[in-house]
Write a structure and sequence with these properties.
By secondary structure, this protein is an alpha/beta fold. It has one domain: Rossmann fold (3-Layer(aba) Sandwich). It contains 9 helices and 9 strands. Helix 4 runs parallel beside helix 5 and helix 5 runs parallel beside helix 7. The chain is globular and about 50 Å long. The two termini are about 35 Å apart. Belongs to the short-chain dehydrogenases/reductases (SDR) family.
Length: about 290
């Protein structure tokens, strides 16, 4: 039995967990998305890099291709439905008429307390984190509602804010909670006949632009070209080493690679009987 298990593991490693599959990963020019793209490519997937940053998208794709993988950069704004349709079209061409995986990862935070959040802040978060994933799934439906025996997977990225709420993030929390409902609905609609699996990952404190010190000056371009500052005020290295992780059993933040590894695990055949679930990747926080 042990010998057979070793043979299967060796075969998967040689062939790649995602060999021959085509994956769209949004927000894949940097951070968790870029790490997921690299891991997917290492496991044999043909990866489509979707991100609003054209330069970094191409750099990520070039890096994967130079390492022997297969990647295509299709940059654009997910708040545009025309772009979403173009993304699906280009991905299907890249995949010779097939798409197997979608990872709805793109996003950022635009915080504010409830009595000060503007309609623009509210609408932007819901449009990016809930409406865009829905529109992408709808556009890609013809490639997922196919009974051809090949695996189809959707991994939607949520947050502990969407599961537990978070002060100062009403807009983000509502959007990320909606992602959980979307995931469960897709699992119930597309699972029975087509075998599509859909799961959510709710990340805790992962080391990205969204959790670094706001004072570092990272920003993203929002609606109308507005610069939106990213990060957490006062999240300095000294503060991070003090009490900030006391409620995390592992006593540290997660890395982008660890976060991306969770995405790969859910999209792979190692999770072939898991669907409709919200996986908490938090180092034990909020257990």
């Amino acid at each position: 039995m042990a010998q057979r298990a070793a043979q299967i593991a060796g075969h998967l490693k040689k062939q790649g967990l995602l060999q021959g599959q085509v994956a769209i990963i949004t927000g894949a020019a940097q951070g968790i998305g870029a790490e997921a793209a690299r891991l997917f490519a290492e496991e044999g997937a043909r990866v489509v890099i979707s991100d609003i940053d054209a330069k970094k998208s191409q750099e990520t794709a070039d890096g994967i291709n130079a390492a022997g993988g297969a990647a295509l950069a299709v940059p654009g704004d997910l708040l545009s439905e025309d772009y979403i349709k173009e993304l699906v079209r280009r991905a299907a061409e890249f995949g010779n008429g097939k798409i197997h995986i979608i990872v709805n990862n793109a996003g950022f935070t635009w915080d504010g307390v409830i009595h000060k959040i503007t309609d623009k802040q509210w609408d932007t978060m819901l449009n990016l984190h809930a409406k865009a994933p829905f529109q992408l799934l709808r556009a890609a439906a013809p490639y997922f509602r196919v009974a051809d025996g090949e695996p189809r997977n959707i991994v939607n990225i949520s947050s502990t804010s969407g599961v537990h709420g978070n002060a100062g993030q009403a807009n983000y929390a509502v959007a990320k909670a909606g992602v959980v409902g979307l995931t469960k609905t897709v699992a119930k609609e597309w699972g029975p006949k087509y075998g599509v699996r859909a799961n959510t990952i709710a990340f805790g404190h992962i080391l990205t632009r969204l959790t670094q010190a706001k004072e570092k000056g990272a920003f993203v371009q929002g609606p109308d070209g507005q610069k939106i500052a990213l990060g957490i005020p006062g999240m300095t290295e000294a503060a991070a080493g003090a009490d900030v992780y006391n409620d995390v059993p592992l006593r540290r933040a997660g890395t982008a690679t660890e976060a991306a590894s969770a995405i790969l695990a859910l999209a792979s055949p190692l999770s072939s009987y898991i669907t409709g679930q919200t996986i908490m990747v938090t180092g034990g926080r909020n257990m």
